[in-house]
Design goal:
It contains three helices and two strands. The protein has one domain. The chain has 77 residues and is an alpha+beta fold. The protein is flat, with a radius of gyration of 13 Å. 3% of the residues are buried.
Amino acid sequence: TPLDVEALHELNMPIFLCLAEDDKIVPVDGEMAIKIADNLPEHTVKLIMPGLNHSFIESDADRVTAATLDFIAGLAA
């Protein structure tokens, strides 16, 4: 099933959008990333990880985990 990007604004849950600054596959300034980011609800937490590429979840797992845990901790505050 294709992603219904225009329906993303209807999501009513915490959302953490984490992108890699140097991603050549899904560039942060590319059409798809912009379309997704623009259609997410205002409460979305958006983070661009500087200096990382498309495989950032594996290549810098500690940094991504720390950012994710910070997001989760913010939900409990």
